[in-house]
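Look over this one:
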Amino acid sequence: MSETVFMKGNEAMAEAVIRAGCRFYFGYPITPQNEVPAYMARRLPETGGTFIQAESELAAINMVFGAAVAGARAMTSSSSPGISLKQEGISYLAACELPSVIANVMRGGPGLGNISPSQSDYWQSTRGGGHGDYRTIVLAPHTVTEMVELTMDAFDLADLYRNPVLVLSDGLLGQMMEKVIFPDPEARKKDGLLRGRPLPPKDWALTGAQGRAPRFIRSLIMKQGALEEHNFKLAEKYARIEVEEPLAESLACENADIMLIGFGTSARVAKQAQLMLAEHGIKAGLFRPITLWPFPSEQLATLARKVDRFLVIEMNTGQMIEDVKLVIARERSLKEVRVELLPRPGGGVPFPEEIVARAREVLK
C-alpha cells in the first residue's frame, strides 16, 4: 500500500532512490543538494547498499560507470557546477548504453553563481551536455511527491532503454517540505510509467565470463565506419524514445485566451497565477512539460492550433522557449502568434502577480 509522510524534497528523492532498488550511490557535496548524500550515507547501508563520498565529481560519475557496467542500479547527484564536471562521464555512459540516474538540484549560474534555485541548466540537460551525439532522458518534477515518482520512474526508463536519465530539480524543490506519497510498489508495476512493460534482462553486463563468451563494453571504436554505425544505432533508440515517452500536463486548455508554459518550480507558480487570472475573467491554460527530453512536441502542437497567445515562464533568460517556438512555428506563423517570455535568471523565482501582469500585457 502507499505511504504518506512529510519530508524535505532532497530527502524524499533519496528515499525514492532506495525504494527503486538502487544500492550504489556515489556523490560529492555541493549546496543545495547536500541532503541527498547525507541521507544516503545514513540510509543506504541499512539496506545493504554502498555509499561512497567520492574525492570529486569526476570520480563520482566514473564510479557510477563502474557499478552500471556490472548491471547494478547506480546513481549520483549534484548541483549545476558539479553536473558540468560530470558531463564527460555522462557522455561515456550514453556511448556505452549504461543505465544510470543523475539528479541535478539546480542553482543559479553561470559559474559558481549562488545557491538559489534556477532553471538555467535546461540547454545542458536537453542537448546532451557533453561531447558527441547523444541524448539523456530528462524528467522535471514540480512537487515533492512527483520528485519521488519520477525518480523511481527514472531507474525503470534507464533500464528499459539502456540510457542515462536525468532528474532535473532545483534548490527550491530540494529544500521545501511537503506531504509526500510513496507509491505502492505493486501498483507502480501495473500503473506506473512502464505501463506493464517488462524490463529487459541485463545480458550485456560484465559479471565475469565463467561459462559464457566474453562481453565487451567500450566507447573507443576505432574500426573504419564502426563508430558511425554505432551512432546511427543510438539515433534509432533516441527516435523511439521521442515517440514513446513524452509526458506533459495540460490544465484548462480548452478555449484558453492565453497559454502559460513552464516546468518545475515555474509551473508550480504558474498554477497559482492561472487561478488569479480567472478572477480577472481571463481563461489561462497551463502546459507543463514533464519530460524536457523528449520534449512533448505533439501535445503542444495540438494547443498551438487553437491558441494565439503564449507566455513561457522560466527561471533563466529563456531556454525552453526555443523548443516552444520550434513547435509553434511548425504549426503556425510566428507573425500571427505571440510567444513571449517572463525570465527570472540567476536565482530569481517568479511571483504569481508577475505572471498575471505579464499575461495581461501579452493579451493587449
Summary: The chain has 14 helices and 14 strands. The longest helix spans residues 226-244.
